[in-house]
Amino acid sequence: MKKNYYAENLNSQKLYQVYETSLLRIRQYLEAEIEFVRTRLSGRERVLELGAGYGRIVRELAPFCASIVGVDISEENVKLGKRYLKNFPNADMVTMDVHDMSFDCQFDVVLCLQNGLSAMKADDKVVRTIIGLLAPGGAAYFSSYSAKFWDFRLKWFEEQASKGLLGAIDPEKTKDGVIVCADGFKAATHTPDDFERIGAASGFPYQVTEVDDSSVFLIIHKTS
Ligand SMILES: C[S@@+](CC[C@H](N)C(=O)[O-])C[C@H]1O[C@@H](n2cnc3c(N)ncnc32)[C@H](O)[C@@H]1O
C-alpha cells in the first residue's frame, strides 16, 4: 500500500488530537458536516465512509443507519478506530487505499467528508469507483471547505502546528485555499466549481450546496 503523510505521520492519537480542538467555530463546522448527513439518513442505509480516520464520523452516524464501515489507509487509525467503535455493533473499520478499493457488496451512502477528496488525493477514477460502489437509489456525499471559512481553517491548522501535529505553516505558500507546512504537509480545497465539474462528469443528478458558511457539499444521486 502506498504511504502518505497521514499514514506515516498524522494518524491514531495525533489525528485524534487534531479533532480535540479548543476552537468553538471549528467544533461547530465539524458538527454541521455530520448533521447535514445525519438528517438525510432514514436508519436503513448501508453506509461507507472513505478516509475515516479513527472513526470520528462513523461513531456519530452509527445510531442513524443500518450499518457503517470506515475505510482508512492507516493501519494505526483502523486499530484505534476498532477500539473507538467497540460499543457500536453495526460499525466497523477496514484498512484500504481508496485508490485500490474492492468490496463484495454495494452501499446506499458513500461519504467522503472533511475535505476527503483532497486529503486522499483522489482523482476522477476514484470518484467513478465510488459511484460504482453505490446501489441504485444511493447517494455519495463529498465535502470541502467554503472560501468563507478560510480564516477559521487557518487558525485550526495553526493550532495543530502549535500542538506539534504538523510542521510550521509556510506563510508564503499558504493561500488561495491551500495550506502548506514546512514538513511537506499540503492541504488543498475543492471549490464549488470543482464540485460542479465532478458532479456533471458523473452523469447523474447532483447538487452543490454550502452548509453553515463553513463547508461545501457535492451530493451525487445514483438514480439507476
Ligand atoms: C483529514 S483526515 C479525515 C478523517 C475523518 N474523515 C474525520 O473527519 O474524522 C483524512 C483521512 O484520510 C486518510 N487517507 C489519506 N489518504 C488515503 C487513501 N489513499 N486511502 C484511504 N484513506 C486515506 C488519512 O489516513 C486520514 O485518516
UniProtKB/TrEMBL annotation:
<keyword id="KW-0808">Transferase</keyword>
<dbReference type="GO" id="GO:0008168">
    <property type="term" value="F:methyltransferase activity"/>
</dbReference>
<keyword id="KW-0489">Methyltransferase</keyword>
<protein>
    <submittedName>
        <fullName>Class I SAM-dependent methyltransferase</fullName>
    </submittedName>
</protein>
<dbReference type="GO" id="GO:0032259">
    <property type="term" value="P:methylation"/>
</dbReference>
<dbReference type="Pfam" id="PF13649">
    <property type="entry name" value="Methyltransf_25"/>
</dbReference>
<dbReference type="InterPro" id="IPR029063">
    <property type="entry name" value="SAM-dependent_MTases_sf"/>
</dbReference>
<feature type="domain" description="Methyltransferase">
    <location>
        <begin position="47"/>
        <end position="138"/>
    </location>
</feature>
<dbReference type="InterPro" id="IPR041698">
    <property type="entry name" value="Methyltransf_25"/>
</dbReference>
